[in-house]
Model the fold of this input.
Amino acid sequence: MDYSKSDEAIEKLSQEEYRVTQRNGTEHPGTGKYLYNKEAGLYVDIVSG
Done:
């Protein structure tokens, strides 16, 4: 699969989003936005969509 990262999308990231998505960081355990989400769906990368 081919995807691209636009500079505009990267500039909109918070510091934590940037660290996690662009610098191979991780969220602190138990703090993820979707931790308790059980909804079916398609979840995509915040930068490449």
Notes: The chain has two helices and no strands. The mean pLDDT is 90.
